[in-house]
Amino acid sequence: MKILLRIVVVFMFASFSFHSFAQLRFGAKVGVNFAKIRAVYDGDNDNDVKALTSFAIGGTADYALSDALSIQPSLLFSGKGFKYKEDDYKFLMKLYYLELPINVVYKYDIGVLKIYGAAGPYFGFAIGGTWDDDGDKDKIKFGDGNNDDNIKRGDFGLNIGAGVEVNSFQIGLNYG
Description:
Layout: H1 2-23, E1 24-35, E2 40-41, E3 44-45, E4 49-50, E5 52-64, E6 69-86, E7 89-109, E8 114-133, E9 136-139, E10 154-166, E11 169-175
Antiparallel strand pairs: 1-5, 2-3, 4-6, 5-6, 6-7, 7-8, 8-9, 8-10, 10-11
């Protein structure tokens, strides 16, 4: 009887494991970032601050909760920053982050492809960066006050995105 019970328990765990792995998919994520900040001086927007084109690369998982709903966490190495130019003066800031977005994804099957919408929080940690102040270049010193560049390492926000999926390959747009 004990042997039969062990066989049943092992079979149940094996069945659960196979079922769980069927719901979990892994993949790579590659993208282009158009990073920008909003600069306000004396209550007015500074329109000379421009977007900086950068990248995002990493891995992602897709855990299906149902045929239409899944949770999609990712771990990304992401570039952000901005550029500023006024007359002959130029300023450029590049920041590099490890980001963890955790999106809830809803997929709608329309035949040969699925359309999807995604939303959720992201958390980031700056791991490096540089600035170029009109030719004077240096590494960014992270902190929140004395003897640093007054840039905190932590970053967080919300993502929203949409796209299409064909044979587990996704192409989409995301705003964070």
